[in-house]
Amino acid sequence: MNAPLNDRGVIHRYRRFLPVTDATPVVSLSEGSTPLLHSPRLSERTGAEVYLKFEGLNPTGSFKDRGMTVAISKAVEHGARTVICASTGNTSAAAAAYAARAGVQCAVILPAGKIAVGKLAQAFVYGAKVVAIRGNFDDALRIVREFGGVEGVAIVNSINPDRIEGQKTASFEVIDDLGDAPDLHFLPVGNAGNITAYWKGYKEFHAAGRSTRLPRMVGFQAAGSAPIFRGAPVERPETVATAIRIGNPASWQGASDAVSESGGCIDIVSDEEILAAQAWLASNEGIFVEPASAASVAGLLKCLSGQPCSKCPLATALRPGARIVLTVTGHGLKDTETALTFGGFVPKEADATLEAVRAVLEGN
């Protein structure tokens, strides 16, 4: 039987690659099928074909929806009445939305004062119970882990393998759109579930004969929140990119495996580079992303500027016809305060006459 048109999300598209059965109640908001946008200006700068996987066009505005459709569907199948997550914002929005869709309760534990208002608003309006702790994301995740044995409660952070299963569908879509895997794939790295999931998906489609090669995976952490790059947890991570402000990633090992197995690397970008990349992407390509999403773009621009890390695979991968995919993970409307504050954007006022408006536009 065909799925209803509004339920044709990633489970419907890639069911045979996902841990679902006929007994799984599919909880979907038609997530996935996000555009893979050609970037003419980045392509010109690199001499390669550069594409942007714009995950901000998922239902709640971030890539988290991919994992959440599978996690919530499996949680309901197993009898969960409540789902719980720790969050820097996007996970809480996705968990709350899919819980509402499923008719179960959602609880969110998040660091007080460290969440973009747009994301916090989503959690509330979708009906989640929100608790802000005096601590960081890692403290929130520690508390959530303690709910693991409570009957009727399911954890839907990326420590839940069903989340990774759903998120890997993004790499399936990249291959379907390009006809093969790219040569390089750049991603922001926070809790590290996404780079882990992409690599898992690339390997599975390759094993199934759906691609002829595997890409090199390149992840970028914010300089003030870079435990994988530095090789040790960061007790007090700090970055303007709140979505990747994580000091001890849950999927650390998965990310390390992805870069080592693929011949890639983990590098860092500064907050200044992230904000500059966010502004550049919006003004040059018409794509507005939240700061954390711009880490992948900032990373590519850093590599091109002659400041790559010692393991950067860009030089050897660049060749005529090479393809590079950059994942941008969340929509810019998630965090408008940062864009306005750091961009210094203030509208210019004028009297309500043509002459006055023209004078302002012409800089007089």
What does this structure look like?
The strands form two sheets. A six-stranded mixed β-sheet has the order 1-2-10-7-8-9, with helices on both faces. Helix 3 (64-77) crosses helix 4 (90-102), helix 8 (169-178) packs across helix 9 and helix 12 crosses helix 13. The protein is built from 16 helices and ten strands. Helix 4 (90-102) links the parallel strand 3 (82-86) and strand 4 (105-111). It has 364 residues and is an alpha/beta fold.
How are the SSEs placed, and which strands pair?
Elements: H1 10-14, E1 36-38, H2 40-46, E2 49-54, H3 64-77, E3 82-86, H4 90-102, E4 105-111, H5 117-125, E5 129-133, H6 137-145, E6 153-155, H7 161-167, H8 169-178, E7 184-188, H9 193-207, E8 216-222, H10 227-230, H11 252-262, E9 265-269, H12 271-285, H13 295-304, H14 314-317, E10 323-328, H15 336-343, H16 354-361
Parallel strand pairs: 2-10, 3-4, 3-6, 4-5, 7-8, 7-10, 8-9
Antiparallel strand pairs: 1-2
Helix pairs in contact: 3-4, 3-7, 4-5, 7-9, 8-9, 9-11, 12-13
What is the approximate shape?
globular
Strand order of the largest sheet: 1-2-10-7-8-9
Overall SS class: alpha/beta
Number of distinct helices: 16
Overview features:
4-stranded parallel beta sheet; 6-stranded mixed beta sheet; alpha/beta; 364 residues; single chain
Give me a quick take on this structure:
It is built from 16 helices and 10 strands. It is α/β, with parallel strands linked by helices and 364 residues long. It has a 6-stranded mixed beta sheet, with helices on both faces. Strands 5-4-3-6 form a 4-stranded parallel beta sheet.
